[in-house]
């Protein structure tokens, strides 16, 4: 059994996951390429400025690899892209915390500075938002496959009612031939 086998597939939501993965991957690949063009040392602790962020060779290569992984998610799409966006988003937020702890130390191998930490937090949250879109909310529409998965009894009742309405099997109340009473029934 694969990780996403139990999740429903919804093509409309899949487009959001794919676009999110592609856009975020493009940002990372562009940052990584610009970093490599600066010819900074692979594990330089101070790095060079690239697009307002500090970068070294290791961070540039890592950015290209993660960006390529997001492109793979974009190509595959479906629930894989959603799960990949959420997992990488969480990893970016965790990376922000870890790199915040190693700022200005000798183990700052990715040459992070405070703008990098903030970028990591924001990038991770945006990536998680793309991944969770349409999956996590208290007011999902009833035709959403994730709502249907979480509420199978209600979904089955609604589907049966919808089928009955379409096929004309819906019970119709007989009309009374006499005058209608305005008094409420008890």
TrEMBL record:
Q: Does the keyword ATP-binding apply?
A: no
Identify the Pfam families for this entry.
DUF4383 (PF14325)
Stretches for region Disordered? 158-186
Polar residues bias (residue ranges)? 168-186
Q: Which UniProt keywords apply?
A: Membrane, Transmembrane, Transmembrane helix
Listed transmembrane segments = 21-45, 57-76, 83-102, 114-133
Protein's UniProt name: DUF4383 domain-containing protein
Organism taxonomic ancestry? Bacteria, Bacillati, Actinomycetota, Actinomycetes, Kitasatosporales
